[in-house]
Each structure stands twice: as C-alpha cells, then as structure tokens.
Write a structure and sequence with these properties.
This protein is mostly beta strands. It has helices at 2-19, 89-92; strands at residues 40-47, 59-65, 73-79, 100-103, 115-124, 128-138, 141-155, 163-174, 178-198, 201-220, 225-230, 234-240, 249-254, 257-270, 281-283, 290-297, 301-308, 314-323, 326-333, 342-350, 353-361. The protein is 6% helix and 56% strand.
Length: 364
C-alpha cells in the first residue's frame, strides 16, 4: 500500500513538472502574408497605464495578472504581402527578400526632418525575424531604403534564458534636405515564462525583454550642418503565446513613458487581397439573404470557391469543378450555408492563383 502511495506521489510530481514547462516560440508563431493572397491582420487594444504593476517582473513560472487593463483606443496591425506593395516600395522589396510589410504606427518624428510616416519591411526565416528596410514619407514623397545592417528582432527557436544582440544601421539622402541615418544596438533576453492574464484571456507565455539604444544622424545641406542625436533608451517587454502572431501583451518604456498594447482575439484573420486575377464582384454587399458572385476565367480550369470566417477557417465549400473560360455567375443564399450575420471572405482558387473578396451578411 505504501509503495502504491509513493508511486502516485511520483506521478503527480512528474505531471506537475510537465505542466510547468516553459513554452517555445517558433517562426511559425509569427504573422503570415502569402505571396498573392491575403494580408494577415490582428486587432490590438492600446492604453498608457499599467497602474502599480512592475513590467520588469519576470523569472520562471510567473503568474501575472493584467486583467485590470482598460484600453483607450484600438488599432489593426496589418501585415501586407509583397505582392501588395505599391511603387516605389516594390522596386526594393519583393518576395525574395521580404516576408511582409507593416505600417509603423509608433514612429517618432525627427526635429528638422519632414518625415510624415513610416513603413517597415521584415524577413522571417526558420531562425531569424529581422527588419531589412523601411520607407519614409518625406513631404508626401515615399522613399524606400534597405538597411545596411539588419535589425535582428528575434531569433528562433525562442527559449527561456536565450540571449542575443545585434547592431543595425541605415542611411539615406533626402532630396532638398540632406541626409538622415540611424544606428542602433539591440540586446534581447528571454527572461521569464509562465501564466499571463489580460482582459482578453489567460495565456501560457514566454517573456522577452529588448533594450534598444539608438542614435540619429542628421545633416542639413542648406546649413552645411550635421549632428548625432542620441534617442532616449527604449525597453520593450513582450509576452508571447503560441500561435498568436504578435505579443499578447507588450509594454514599451521610452524615457519614462509607457505604451501598452494587448492582443484582442475577437479580430484575427484575413483581408481582401489586391490582386484582381478573376475580377470577382459581389452584389449586393452587404446583403440580407442572397448575393451574386461574378468572375472571369482566362482559360478552362478547375475552380475552387470557399467561404471563410474572419480567422480564415473554411465554413462552406461553394464549388469545386472544371469551368470553361469566360465570365461566370453564381447566386448564393445565406441559408444554404447557415451563415449568420457578420463578416466572411470568399476565396476563389484557379490556375495557381487566389482571389479573396470580403462579404458582409447584414442583420435584419
């Protein structure tokens, strides 16, 4: 009897150890943007207050409760496929050197440099997640440029106690102004793992702390004057959960100012693609009960049409058959596929191309 008791205790101990094992984050847990199909998209909540919580707290098997966070605004983080890049960005960034592009919504303006917006480009491999370039909008004119040394944001697989660092650098001449460049030093430490609670749920997470020291280089040709301007040290605290694409919680601290973003699972999914290979058209849209789908095929081929929800899950298979070249029309009734009110996406695949169209089922 005593032997059975000790066996039971040992099994419970083993299960407890297993339950407390830290997760690993892989490249597959990052955002995805397919070549010719969709843009990945995630909704995030924003605020600037963490109350009395200390973001430096980490270590093994933590249990952190940020459920009190209240967002003051929301925004979509959208990851654009290379095929969607407009000119002149597509002259430098393509499917060979870029996984996706993303608007930099946290870009900080530079005194004396009329940069009104920024767009960043990233490459994801099985071992690295790095920023390879950017595009600035100067007086409304887009200026794309490659980093001379990439910013390695993450290394994979990401495990507890991993450490790495990198030095990144870029510079570009700016018409009628002079020159703007930047160099930075990033240090990453995976300093904790455990349970994190936010207003959006409970997550098993891996925490990475990044410290970034940055120096701007500015030269104004009209004054023949240049200078190096150190920026305030930036510290990023990020909690990753498997398969969530972005951190479920991120706290950025720059010069004592907090910026907080936390993952909102209510809107994770896909966007319409901008390629018009089949000239898909839906009418009416939004619709109450029925809509018509028209599309044009450049040749006779097998055509697959599916309906997906906002996270990309197939909810109905509309068609899968050989169709002749020319224009086709389908009439679809929501009751046929048990569609409730909300947003869906129609995906048409043929000849190794895909086109996606957003549809909205309206409420009565």
């Amino acid at each position: 009897m005593l032997k059975k008791y000790f066996i039971a205790i040992s099994l419970l101990s083993l299960l407890s150890v297993k339950a407390q094992t830290p997760i690993t984050i892989y490249a597959a847990d990052m955002p995805v943007a397919s070549l010719l199909t969709v843009r990945d998209s995630v909704l995030v909540n924003l605020t600037n207050s963490i109350g009395t919580m200390d973001p430096t707290v980490a270590g093994p098997n933590f249990n952190l409760d940020y459920s009190f966070l209240t967002y003051t605004s929301q925004q979509f983080e959208t990851f654009d496929a290379p095929a969607t890049f407009s000119s002149p960005f597509n002259l430098l960034f393509n499917v060979f050197n870029t996984s996706y592009g993303k608007e930099n919504k946290s870009f900080t303006s530079i005194p004396g440099v009329p940069i009104t917006g920024a767009y960043d480009f990233f490459k994801v491999s099985s071992t690295l997640f790095k920023q390879t370039g950017s595009g600035f909008f100067v007086n409304g004119t887009p200026l794309p440029f490659l980093y001379s040394s990439a910013d390695v944001v993450y290394k994979f697989p990401m495990n507890y106690l991993n450490q790495d660092s990198c030095d990144y650098k870029f510079g570009l001449p700016i018409p009628t102004l002079g020159y703007y460049g930047q160099k930075g030093h990033r240090v990453n430490v995976v300093d904790g793992w455990g349970t994190l609670t936010t207003p959006e749920g409970v997550f098993q997470t891996l925490r990475i702390k990044s410290t970034i020291a940055t120096i701007d280089t500015i030269y104004l040709s009209s004054f023949s004057l240049g200078s190096n301007v150190p920026r305030p040290l930036k510290t990023e605290y990020k909690w990753f959960a498997s398969g969530k694409k972005i951190p479920v919680l991120e706290i950025d601290v720059t010069g004592g100012v907090n910026t907080i973003k936390y993952f909102n699972p209510s809107m994770v999914g896909i966007y319409e693609n901008t390629t018009k290979q089949f000239n898909m058209a839906v009418f009416p849209n939004p619709f109450l009960n029925d809509f018509s789908l028209t599309y044009t095929l450049p040749s006779t081929t097998n055509v697959k049409i599916v309906l997906m929800d906002v996270v990309g899950k197939i909810v109905a298979r509309v068609s899968d058959q050989i169709e002749a070249l020319g224009t086709h029309q389908l009439f679809i009734n929501k009751n046929e596929f048990n569609l409730s009110a909300g947003v869906y996406f129609l995906k048409l695949e043929a000849n190794n191309y895909k086109e996606i169209k957003k549809i909205v089922v309206a409420k009565y």
